[in-house]
Design goal:
By secondary structure, this protein is mainly alpha-helical. The protein is built from 1 helix and no strands. The longest helix has 123 residues. The protein starts with a helix and ends with a helix.
Amino acid sequence: MPTAELVCQDCLASQRKIEYIRERNDELEQINNELVEKCKILNHQNLQYENRIIELEKESAIINTNATVAVEIEELNEELNNLQDQFINMALSTNQQVRERQISRHNDMQAQIEAAQRARLSRNQHH
């Protein structure tokens, strides 16, 4: 049978263990609280990063859309340039045709004037 002194020593040892466990529990609780705060900060940062990623994805979509639009604009500009070239060629051709007609009319009128002058000279010579 244990003596009172052994029981007392066991009791003291148990009390020291309980005190140690309480102290360790307080330390772990403090560490846990610090980790909870760090997690809150990390969660907040994570949310900010997620929001920034969403913004960057939107910007990327805009950039991709702008690039697509730029390609379409370039294609339309090429078509416009081709149409302008065609228009200029048609205008030059039309101008050339008009000029040729004007020259032809001028030559016809000149020939008629010369014929009339010859006819007048011929009549004057007969009179």
